[in-house]
Amino acid sequence: xxxxxxxxxxxxxxxxxxxxxxxxxxxxxxxxxxxxxxxxxxxxxxxxxxxxxxxxxxxxxxxxxxxxxxxxxxxxxxxxxxxxxxxxxxxxxxxxxxxxxxxxxxxxxxxxxxxxxxxxxxxxxxxxxxxxxxxxxxxxxxxxxxxxxxxxxxxxxxxxxxxxxxxxxxxxxxxxxxxxxxxxxxxxxxxxxxxxxxxxxxxxxxx
Length: 207
Ligand SMILES: *[C@@H]1O[C@H](CO)[C@@H](O)[C@H](O)[C@H]1NC(C)=O
Description:
The chain is mostly helical. The protein has one domain: Butyryl-CoA Dehydrogenase, subunit A, domain 3 (Up-down Bundle), CATH 1.20.140. The protein has eight helices and no strands. It is elongated. 31% of the residues are buried. The structure holds 2-acetamido-2-deoxy-beta-D-glucopyranose (NAG). One of its GO terms (cellular component) is apoplast. InterPro entries: Invertase/methylesterase_inhib, Pectinesterase_inhib_dom, PME_Inhibitor. This is Pectinesterase inhibitor domain-containing protein. It is found in: Secreted, Extracellular space, Apoplast.
């Protein structure tokens, strides 16, 4: 009798445990947070991005690296720069290929070539800003942040010059190639602008 009773008890316990597990898993699936530390990092990324010019792009480009970023402002800024550099590099490669395409008008070829050069400069400037960031210590903080700001501002200027060139020719025709190129460069410029805002946040966090 006693054995049967405890067997029943065990069975009920197992059922209760199993159903509470299922419940908690269901609840987990419904939310985008899986572990507590991830939630803290996504909140941190969202909050940091909220003061950038393109907060949604900022968040979507950085949340993939939430595990690395955690709630570290220096890593957040470094990641934003790395993401921007990767985008600038792939856009630059795409532009070089497109500039060699047949059937482009001389004016378009000229705009492409200018853009390829400006993007190469901006890739270079972003690289420098990333290597500056890698040297960041508490004792050189202000000087390094100021240098990083200078390089990233220069990169943004070069990218803007490039998009301006495209705006002019796009008004004349508006082909698919031009719109694709313009969209890509705009994205690079928006990522750069966001990185600059995060750099300013980091610089001010030590004030
Ligand atoms: C950014 O890229 C550099 C160079 O590849 C690397 O050393 C650094 O760790 C990266 N930073 C972050 C925050 O991922």
